[in-house]
Amino acid sequence: MRDVLVHSEAQFNRAIGFVLRRARKLTKMNQEEAAEMAGVNRSHLARLERGHHAPSCFTLAKLAECYGVGFGGLGQMIEDKVKSYRPMRRRR
């Protein structure tokens, strides 16, 4: 059996949201400042951070740039967060 990293789309969106919020807070930005720099609405950023929506690759790239982590760095942070979840065994 193979371990499955991502259990659901909702779980993946929550992991992305967790990482986005953490990256923003590490830069000491509020949602308003980050949203303005990335060119998105504050309410949209809030929904992304809560994991209610999946960001586009373009939005992720803009946010990564705002937070000074780069797209690859943000991707690595998301992957690390997903890996921290308890793996689910796939049934055969």
Structural notes for this entry:
The chain is mainly alpha-helical and 92 residues long. The protein has one domain (7-84): 434 Repressor (Amino-terminal Domain) (Orthogonal Bundle), CATH 1.10.260. 65% of the residues lie in helices and 4% in strands. The protein has 5 helices and 2 strands, in the order βαααααβ. It has helices at residues 9-26, 31-38, 42-49, 57-67, 70-84, and strands at 3-4, 88-89. Helix 1 packs across helix 5 (70-84), helix 2 packs across helix 4 (57-67) and helix 4 (57-67) crosses helix 5 (70-84). The longest helix is centred in the first third of the chain and has 18 residues, at 9-26. The radius of gyration is 14 Å and the shape is globular.
The rough form would be described as: globular
**CATH architecture designation:** Orthogonal Bundle
Walk across the major sheet and give the strand order: 1-2
Radius of gyration, whole Å: 14 Å
